[in-house]
Amino acid sequence: MSDVLRMERMPHIWCPGCGIGSEVNSFAEAVKRSGIDPKKLVVVSGIGCTGRVAGYVNFDSIHTTHGRAIPVATGVKLANPDLTVVVFSGEGDLTGIGGNHLIHAARRNMDLVVICNNNFTYGMTGGQVTPTTPNSAIASTTPYGNYEYPFSLPFLVDAAGATYIARWTSMHSRNVTQSIEEALLRKGFSFIEVISPCTTLYLRRNRLGDGVDMLQHYQENSILKHGCDTRETAIDYQGKIVVGKFVDKNKPTYLEGVDKCCVKLVGDDYQLYGKTIPEREAEEKAEKERIAARRAAMAATEAQGEEAVPAKPRKALAAKVKKAPAKAPKKAAAAPKAAKKAAVKPVKKTAAKAPAKKVAAKAVKKAAPKAVKKAAPKATVKTKAMAKAAPKKTRK
Amino acid sequence: MKTKLSGVSEQANVRSSGRYAGTKTVTADPKGVDSGPHFMDGDHAIAEGALAAGCRFFAGYPITPSTEAAERFAERAPEVGALFIQMEDELASIAALIGAAWGGQKCMTVTCGPGFSLMTENLGLACMTETPMVIANVQRGGPSTGLPTLTAQQDMMQARYGPHGDNAIIALCPDSPQECFDLTVEAFNLSEFYRVPVIILTDETVGHMHEKVVIPPADQIQVVPRNNYSGPKEDCRPYKFDSQGGHPMVRAGDGYNFHITGLTHNEKGYPVMTADQNKIVVTHLMEKINGNADMIIRLDEDQIDGAEVVVVSYGITSRIAVKAIQDARKEGIKVGSLRMITIWPFCEKRIREISSKVKAIVVPEINYGQMVLEVERNAGGRCKVISVNHCGGAVHDPEVILDAIRKAIQ
Fold first, then answer.
1. Checking phi first, is residue A281 left (phi over 0); if not, alpha (psi -120 to 50) or beta?
2. Backbone phi, then psi, for B70, in 5-degree steps?
3. Among residues A155, B66, B84, B97, which is most buried (max CB within 10 A)?
4. B96 → chain A, closest CA residue
5. What are the b/e assignments for B317-342, b being 16+ CB within 10 Å?
């Protein structure tokens, strides 16, 4: 992890039991696993506890004003489309003061990855109510209980036009990793919400115990529903939390729209910042190949490691994430109770499923490097297609 | 590169020596330069000036009377290979500029008072992170929504003191569409060199006034190119707190893993929130501009030597003042003119010099009296300072300024 973090800035400011640390961990892991060039990664944060992420990650990073991380990130991305731009901030920052920017970036399908730490509280300023604080929850500015109604963020960004939406809790760190990895490798506006405990303020004020108690709560109350209709993702006070990948669809990004329009107008000579579309496409293709090569190399090293240490829980959970999309939505549509069981069960089940996955993985790794390159994108395409089909079913 | 004001300015007192010391200027990229004579308004000239200066990113939000500049840029962007984006509001527009600047592009936005009020938030961040950008404020009457389609010079102090905390910016005041073009190029050069937001403080009259604008050939336009750091990673510092300009930017994607923040920081960009560090940072930000004021400031002076009265003006008001000055001279009054092309940093030294030699300084402006406060402060009681204020909505009647000149010598 030390290569991904600015170790000279440690220790960090986050409290014991806070979920942000594990999210940063997941993020760092996802960056490594994605195979993207870390030099081309820019992390932008707003203000608040989560806003400090930009200051700890060892990438080009910008710590902006309150709520403005998304427009700053938009500027970075549009100034240099080669960059992968991640916004890492809290729900107060992104959906309160920055709510307008969030919906407009989603509407434009701006090519950004937005990771939203949702802890139902303004932590840095002492635990005030936020746009997602569940009704009746106590905050320092709602000392007698919150009488407002919260945003359901997946529903909000879905309505606004986001093309990738996932929600997990800080208990699902491997799924968070998986989602961030997927988001880093895709184009368009990706929104990943992570429900996380604020031990010092939200949990203490609401007498909900400590971080471990909250993880237990997440464990018991998370309902895995890949492809779930985002209208059904609202969170009540200490209620059930629908998690999963809800949306994953293709739509032209903002820059693709610009290109399409301008090439019609100017012709094939059209350049953005001195580069024609074919030139940019060639660069993008070359970068994709480099990413694939890095992923193949990583897979090869991992395979070697696996032979020495057989049982790796990470593999097991990754398998769970990939297999779940096909099954979960059907169950969710048919019988919510069954889905609830499914949410808890896969954690245990995956241990049994893992060997089969491993065999498959090994088979891929044994094949020629070129085949591996091709295999990796195919796998993601498959899950995308599944997720794409799923929402239709549930919405009907 | 300079407009001639008939009757007033024979030559501009341009102190350009050493202005961009240590930085090589290059000729403009011909792709952005629409050379030749044009008939265009000030807003359009601003957009053309930006393109000529190498600006390739524009984020804006429509607001009268500045919108035409955004429209011009949007229209020209595809052929020049630039990008225009209309953001959701002014907060986002200037935020996008900060991102774009660190992403490697020269960038600008245009707005007027209500939009500028929103922009002051990230104008502060841009000052703090020493981010080069150009913001044109085509002023209209205020306060609040005020007079959307009518002129004013009411945002002079806001431009300087809008953002909270101590910081310094550069602001230029064009008085014609030609100067809108010239000064936009200049604004980018200053912005790149000093790594500071530069504000073009024009007004509705100049913004909407159509005049002849001659855009010179690209090889006659000198621009300060973006200076990106390219040295070893361990020596990379986004900042250097030495109260000077000319320091390189660090570009996202170049592998330096820079960090910038609005928090009080060290040269590495990392937060250091102490009183001592705040002193270092604030002193640097202020002195970078104020300490180099002599190199930054451009003034257009006429017949100040031997004058009894000097009219200190800026922007569109200086063109109204021409008539009053001419008439006063016909009456035998020795009147000099000082037109402030650079309004911030303020020409403190020059006002001090003049105040000790003249009977009075007359300051006409389309506001309730803003820059006159700076003149009074620097005149320090050595001469009379007469404010000829005029609230928003229209330019002065030259007769009012003439009356003030007459009174000044009594």
1. alpha
2. -65, -40
3. B97
4. A75
5. bbbbbbbbbebbeeeebbbbbbbbbb
Q: Are residues A191 and A45 in the same domain?
A: yes
DSSP conformational letter for B61: -
Q: How many domains does chain A have?
A: 2
CA distance A396 to A375: 33
Task: Write the pLDDT tens digit of every residue in B309-341.
Answer: 999 999 999 999 999 999 999 999 999 999 999
- A71 and B56 within 8 Å at the Cβ level: the answer is no
Residue B158: which of B305, B10, B370, B326 has the closest Cα?
A: B370
| Cβ pair B102:A62 closer than 8 A | yes
Query: Is A71 within 8 Å of B85 when comparing Cβ atoms?
Result: no
Q: What's the pTM?
A: 0.88
CA distance B163 to A348: 56
Q: Taking CB atoms and an 8 Å limit, are B57 and A40 in contact across chains?
A: no
For residue B253, the chain A residues in CB contact (below 8 A) are 39-40, 42, 60, 80, 82-83
Q: Do A273 and B262 touch (CB under 8 A)?
A: no
Q: Residue B226: its chain A contacts at CB < 8 A?
A: none
Mean pLDDT throughout B68-74? 98
Q: How does pLDDT run across B186-223, given as a tens digit for each residue?
A: 999 999 999 999 999 999 999 999 999 999 999 999 99
- Subunit contact B88:A101, Cβ cutoff 8 A: yes
Within A35-166, where are the H helices? 53-56, 69-79, 91, 99-107, 153-160
Chain A CB contacts of B252 below 8 Å:
42, 60, 76, 79-80, 83
Of A55, A68, A104, the CB nearest to B271: A55
Nearest to B95 among A64, A79, A82 (CB): A64
For β-strands B133-141 and B147-151, DSSP reports them as: antiparallel
Domains and CATH numbers, chain B: 20-222 (3.40.50.970), 299-409 (3.40.50.920)
Look at residue B410 in the predicted model and tell me its pLDDT. 87
pLDDT of residue A309: 61
pLDDT score, position B267: 98
CA dist A178 and A184 (Å) reads 10
Residue ending a domain, among A215, A248, A281, is: A248
Helix/strand/coil (H/E/C) assignment for every residue in B115-143: HHHHHHHHHHHHHHCCCCEEEEEEEEECC
- Pair A182, A126 in one domain: yes
Q: Which of A188, A219, A248 is the last residue of a domain?
A: A248
CA atoms within 13 A on the CB side of B213: 31
Domain hosting residue A300, numbered range? 292-395
